[in-house]
Every structure is written in structure tokens, then in C-alpha cells.
Amino acid sequence: MGFHLPFIFAILSLAVVALANHAAQPAPQLYWNSVLPNTQMPRSISELLHPDSTNEENIVNAVGNGKGKPEIFPLRNRNYVQSHYGVLNRNYVQSHYKKRPPPPENIPFANRKKYALGSPPSDNQLLHYKELAIFFFEKDMRPGATMKFQFPRNSNTATFLPRESAQSIPFSSNKLPEIFNHFSVKPTSVEAKTIKQTIEACEAPGIKGEEKYCATSLESMVDFSTSKLGTRNVEAISTEVLERGATMSMHNYTTMPGLKKLAGDKVVVCHKQNYPYAVFFCHAIKQTAAYVLSLKGDDGEKVKAVTICHLDTSEWNPEHFSFQILKVKPGTVPICHFISTDAVAWVPKHKSA
Questions:
Q1: In this predicted model, what pLDDT tens digit does every residue of 290-333 receive, in sequence order?
Q2: Contact of 162 with 28, CB cutoff 8 Å
Q3: Under a CB-based contact definition with an 8 Å cutoff, are residues 341 and 267 in contact?
Q4: What pLDDT was estimated at residue 305?
């Protein structure tokens, strides 16, 4: 039998290309492909991957410019700091839902400061926030229903570090001076305050029935989410703007046909935090339903919106903002909300028939 050299060379060439492509992939993506080969990576995660992230020194150099202030520290959008659960709000750090409810993400920044200092919203403000569909009922997802909302572009651009690199950097309120020094951040700066608040929020206890964890790497987020769901056969899904509208302002959105309920009664949701590298606050809450619905804005914008519905709110503070907006009491009715475009919902996949 003769050797078919052209054929052999072709096979070898393909093998070399495959190895080169494999080597070019960042470590977090390689881990994802290994553990979740059948799970599509959502845009909210893939856009945080860079080939250079395999070199932690490169990222640290990109974060700190040697002048005491990071170049890409994700503080460009102040409204992001007060994300859905107010994870960077001191009220959340104190006791999550048990004390004063966090300000909704649609509140103007000036009003947020007043709210955070203890001034409750007026009746007119509550009416305004209710119109913004910050929280809503399951019935509000029916086709033809309209809600006013805004889906801003992600401004938090901090990227993932490989797990080994992230684990080598302290992430503890007891190690703040070391952390500030590592990222060339002045202890009195706004960036230092944000780092401190993020870590304290991660260390704060969760509410009853909530399992919480701050993932400092994509690998650890994958491990936490799959362990809490009890399977690696999962979907990871995020809210996505499929087609931009004419403007970036607030718009009325109409719910389109095709509401999809995701599998399982337990969902893990991971919210991106403000930090020099990608950190996600993840929590698993029982008796939770997740949906995907299509929205169309009055300016033509199209959104695939991931919605979380909390079926049991009996452990929430009676003064939680959602109860004030919807005028219901804890434990009486499911309460729903969208997740932001930089958050990820993890659910089990539907079993094929």
C-alpha cells in the first residue's frame, strides 16, 4: 500500500490549525468548552473574553496605568453602580432585602443619592417608577401588554481573569490595602470605595432560601451554577438587544407572542459587579421561574428579555420597593423583573422527548 503524501499533509495541516486555534483561546473559554460542550455561551460572557486574558500581568497593566487610577475601571456609567439588586449600595451590604430596599436601576442618579441617605420616594415618584416596569406581575407578560423600560448598553467592560490568576489576588475586606496596592488604586479614591463595597456585598449574608456566591472567574461561575442546579446540562442565557432603535431613551415596549418558560423551578442568576476584573454576584433562589419573551419598542428596538419571577416573596422585607410599587404584600403574588444585559441566568435544559 502506497503512502498518499498529499492526503497526509492535508491532515497534518488541519491538525496544526486546530492546535493553533485551541492555543489562541483564553483559558476561561477552554474550561467552558470542556465542561459545557453543549451550552452556547451568551454574549454577556463571550464579550468579556480576550486572548490576552491568559496573561494576568497584561490585564493588571491594562487596569492600572501607573498613575493610581485604572484606565478601564468600570465606573463610566454611574447608573450601573446601582444595579437591580443594589449590590453596591450600602443598604444591600447591611442586609440585602431585610432593611431598606435598594433604589431601582431606572432612578436618576441624583434621586438615588437622596434615596440611599434615607429619604423614601414620594407617591408621585412611586407612580413614576411603577410606570417604568421595574417590577411587574406574570400577567404583564401576555402578548400585547406594554411596559416602559430602557435597555442601556453595557458600560462595565472589565474582563475575566483565568481562575488561577484570580485566586492569586486577594478578595477579602481584610486584605483591602493589598488589593488597592495591587491595582494601583488610591485608598481614598472612588475606585477604592467601589472595590470595598463590592467585596463587602459579597461577604454579606443572604436571605433565607438564598445561596449566594461571588465568582471571581468564569470557571468558578460555571462550577457554582452547575453545582446548584445539580447538572451540567444547562442553558446560560442573557437579555439581548437584537436590533437597536432610533434612540437610547426610555421607550414603551410591547410584549410579542412566543413567551418561553425555561426549565426547572430553581434558577441561578449572576449579576456583573463593578471591579477591576470580571466578578459576578451569583445567587440561587428556590421557587423561582425564568422566562424569555420578545419585546418590541415603539422606536423599533427589538429585545430578547430574560425575566425572573420570584414565586415566594414571604421572606422579603414588607417595605421592599417592589411591594410599594405593585401595592401587594409579601408572599401574596409572584413578582417579576427583567435581568440586565450583563447578567446571566442559568437553568437546566429541557429534556428532549
A1: 999 999 999 889 999 999 999 988 888 888 888 888 899 999 99
A2: yes
A3: no
A4: 94
Q: Which residues of 57-78 are buried (b: 16+ CB within 10 A; e: fewer)?
A: eebbebbbeeeeebebbbeeee
Between the CA of residue 80 and those of 45, 48, 51, 146, what are the distances in Å?
A: 17, 17, 26, 24
What's the grid cell of residue 288?
423561582
Cα 6 from chain centre: 50
Amino acid (1-letter code) at residue 324: Q
Question: What pLDDT score was predicted for residue 318?
Answer: 87
Q: What is the number of residues in the chain? A: 353
Q: How far apart are CA 218 and CA 316, in angstroms?
A: 30
Are the CB atoms for 335 and 322 separated by under 8 Å?
A: yes
**Cβ 206 vs Cβ 212: under 8 Å:** yes
Q: By three-state DSSP, how is residue 118 classified?
A: coil
Question: What is the model's pLDDT at position 97?
Answer: 34
Collect all residues with Cβ–Cβ distance below 8 Å to 209 and sequence separation of at least 6: 285, 286, 287, 312, 315
- pLDDT of 351: 64
Cell of 217: 472567574
Instruction: Kindly report the pTM of this predicted structure.
Output: 0.75
CB within 8 A of 150, min separation 6: which ones? Answer: 106, 248, 249, 250, 251
- Of the candidates 164, 159, 191, the residue with the CA atom closest to the CA atom of residue 176: 191
CB 252 within 8 A of CB 295: no
Q: Assign 3-state DSSP to the chain and report helix, strand, coil percentages, each to 5.
A: 35, 20, 45
| Nearest CA among 263, 274, 112, 122 for reference residue 195 | 274
pLDDT at 126: 47
Q: What percent of the chain has pLDDT over 90?
A: 47
**pLDDT tens-digit series, residues 56-99:** 444 444 344 333 333 334 433 222 223 333 322 222 222 233 33
DSSP state of 127: H
How does DSSP classify residue 113? H
**Residue 253 near residue 131 (C-beta atoms within 8 A):** no
